[in-house]
Design a protein that fits this description.
264 residues; mainly alpha; 13 helices
Amino acid sequence: MLLDFDRLGALRWMLVALGGLVALFLLLPIFFIVALSFGDSQWLIFPPRGWTLEWYRQLFTDSGWIDSLLTSAKIAVIVMALSVTLGFLAAQALARGKFRGRKTLQAFFLTPMVLPVVVLAVALYALFLKLGLNGTVVGFVIGHLIIALPFSIIAIGNSLESFDTSLEDAALICGAGPLEVKWRVTLPAIRLGLIAAAIFSFLASWDEVVVSIFMASPTLQTLPVRIWSTLRQDLTPVIAAASSLLVGLTVVLMVAGALVRRAR
């Protein structure tokens, strides 16, 4: 029996070590990019011979980069708000509804998660060309919303399925109206799902590049598109600074979500 426990302990440490190596392999390129963003060489030489904040200064003083950053933030906030709102309504229908075709409708909503992004981007590009939405904020929002909405439906749907509906029934019996029940009982009870939906929806829009490339115009570009277009022209460390900014905000939001969940 002791031998079996020893073997299980050794196997556990082997799995931990293997997982650590895989994580290191995945995170190492990000560490390189962050280090290059602080390097004093303009040729992306690793390891850097010195350290500087010059590339971040250029990033935040270039109107083109600032416009792309603000465009990404604005679109991501709009997509987040719409995704959480529509995701709550859709998840409510899928989790509580008892109508024919509910499973089919659920699979339809989750299709963007399994459909190749480039296929979706080409289809939206062809459609938006006819509608005149290419190169517009509306086009960006619709394209990003299609990608972000499944995350909201999954996060909010899981919260609704674990929520005790007898609390809503009790509130109705006590005289609260349907809207008041949703506002005072349902939404506070599933707030972790709402927070998760908001974070993933924001990040789905913030980091999206494939659909954004098809939606972009010379006067309207998101930060990932700006990085992509600049990368095709010149290998400047400003690209590493902008990429580090993208990764940094993603990490901050993920950590914030984890802290909220831990506090809860």
